[in-house]
Automatic annotation (TrEMBL):
Protein name per the record: Flavoprotein domain-containing protein
Gene3D superfamilies cross-referenced by the UniProt entry: Flavin prenyltransferase-like (3.40.50.1950)
Transmembrane stretches, start-end: none
Record domain Flavoprotein: where: 1-54
MF (Gene Ontology): catalytic activity
């Protein structure tokens, strides 16, 4: 963030406690982006690696 480059955080889905939410709020207030890794099952991935690759590709294309 100090170099003005985009920061995209992929945080685990749940459960969040108040500390997690406060930290995510602080990141977004500083210009970061929170992008939860939600797999899209309509693409019918064949392995866990395919799911990871798809989630990362979605985050990188969007931001």
């Amino acid at each position: 963030m100090k170099e003005r480059r985009p920061l995209v955080m992929m945080v685990r889905k749940a459960p969040f406690h108040a500390g997690h939410i406060k930290n995510m709020l602080a990141v977004t207030e500083m210009g970061g982006i929170i992008h939860p890794p939600v797999p899209a099952f309509y693409t019918k991935q064949q392995s866990g690696g395919d799911i990871v690759d798809h989630c990362i590709a979605r985050a990188l294309v969007r931001y």
